[in-house]
């Protein structure tokens, strides 16, 4: 309630985020948008702050494991990505979403990537549709069933595939589907920001280079650029300290450093997949008023801690697969509900 009082000048209105559900979103009034830079508040957390407010809120969104729940209630996630060259990225994102706790994960990829991704895991549902002639017609019916969609891991830059993805983003907007855009999906956005402007429920996950492409090198203008993305868009800037920019509250959160000096490929994919599951849980939570921010914090914390745990075991030879193997340990340690 403290947040609602502090933002008393904002309008509060329901926004549907899939199915028949609605959540309350805080929207700025016109005169408040002009003052975004001066309202910017930054909060910093450290790895030692296992009891920080955001950490407590992240734990609270995790659903209890109950025998009365059925398959799909803990999350049905979609990953759109993959290409002939990049089959690992969509796999890492999908399997991470599954291991964090989603029940079902679908991967939509080009035909050349499908068999390879299937060979990595029998747990994933793989659709070799992304480069088919009627891709949109075949993929669209699946979108209604999914709770959160991740677009970008291993996508590549094939012109036809990117055109298909652009159409999928438009459909997701019409469906008011919670969406996460990563990697080459961000490349598409840098060339056409209108695809995502004012997309409520959108999270962008740029690394350092992708962030510069989206926002430029002048960090003093970040909130000005956030205005161009519009209301309802959340950005998590990946780096030594992951930073979360919330366009609804105009707050910046600095996540804990953690991790290690080992920069193996696939860590961003792990984060994107974990984020999808946490995001669905946050949206389902009846008490969370900033689901995107809390989900970003949880995914960042989990990824950094998985890196730290895996590095202690494998050192310089650590890979993303080693990090994924630590998801259970880290989740149990940091997020799982403790038995009384």
From TrEMBL:
(6S)-NADPHX binds at residues 154, 207-213, 269. Keywords: ATP-binding, Lyase, NAD, NADP, Nucleotide-binding, Phosphoprotein. Transmembrane segments: none annotated. ATP binds at residues 238-242, 259-268. GO terms for molecular function: ATP binding; ATP-dependent NAD(P)H-hydrate dehydratase activity. Residues 54-334 form the YjeF C-terminal domain. SUPFAM superfamilies: Ribokinase-like. It comes from the Eukaryota. One of its GO terms (biological process) is metabolite repair. It catalyses: (6S)-NADHX + ATP = ADP + phosphate + NADH + H(+); (6S)-NADPHX + ATP = ADP + phosphate + NADPH + H(+). Pfam families: Carb_kinase (PF01256). Its cofactor is Mg(2+). Its EC number is 4.2.1.93. Catalyzes the dehydration of the S-form of NAD(P)HX at the expense of ATP, which is converted to ADP. Together with NAD(P)HX epimerase, which catalyzes the epimerization of the S- and R-forms, the enzyme allows the repair of both epimers of NAD(P)HX, a damaged form of NAD(P)H that is a result of enzymatic or heat-dependent hydration. HAMAP family: NADHX_dehydratase. Belongs to the NnrD/CARKD family. This is ATP-dependent (S)-NAD(P)H-hydrate dehydratase. It comes from Culex quinquefasciatus.
């Amino acid at each position: 309630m403290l947040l609602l009082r502090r933002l008393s000048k904002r309008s509060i209105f329901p926004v549907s985020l899939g199915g028949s559900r609605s959540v309350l979103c805080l929207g700025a009034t016109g005169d408040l948008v002009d003052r975004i830079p001066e309202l910017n508040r930054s909060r910093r957390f450290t790895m030692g702050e296992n009891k920080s407010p955001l950490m407590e809120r992240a734990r609270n969104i995790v659903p209890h494991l109950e025998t009365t729940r059925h398959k799909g209630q803990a999350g049905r996630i979609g990953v759109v990505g993959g290409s002939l060259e990049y089959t690992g990225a969509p796999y890492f994102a999908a399997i991470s979403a599954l291991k964090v706790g989603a029940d079902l994960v679908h991967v939509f990829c080009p035909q050349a990537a499908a068999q390879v991704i299937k060979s990595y895991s029998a747990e994933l549902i793989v659709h070799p549709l992304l480069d088919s002639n009627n891709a949109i017609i075949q993929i669209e019916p699946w979108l209604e069933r999914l709770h959160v969609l991740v677009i970008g891991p291993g996508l590549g830059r094939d012109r036809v595939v990117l055109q298909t993805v652009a159409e999928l983003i438009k459909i997701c907007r019409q469906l008011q589907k919670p969406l996460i855009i990563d990697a080459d999906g961000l490349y598409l956005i840098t060339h056409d920001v209108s695809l995502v402007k004012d997309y409520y429920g959108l999270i962008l996950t740029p690394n350092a280079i992708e962030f510069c492409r989206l926002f430029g090198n002048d960090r003093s203008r970040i909130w000005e650029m956030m205005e161009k993305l519009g209301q309802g868009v959340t950005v998590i800037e990946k780096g030594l300290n992951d930073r979360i920019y919330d366009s609804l509250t105009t707050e910046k959160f600095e996540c804990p450093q953690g991790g290690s000096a080992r920069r193996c490929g696939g860590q961003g994919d792990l984060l994107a997949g974990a984020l999808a599951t946490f995001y669905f849980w946050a949206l389902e939570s009846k008490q969370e008023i900033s689901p995107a921010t809390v989900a970003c914090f949880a995914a960042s914390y989990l990824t950094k801690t998985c890196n730290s745990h895996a590095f202690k075991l494998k050192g310089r030879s650590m890979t993303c697969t080693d990090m994924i193997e630590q998801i259970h340990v880290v989740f149990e340690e940091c997020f799982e509900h403790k038995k009384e």
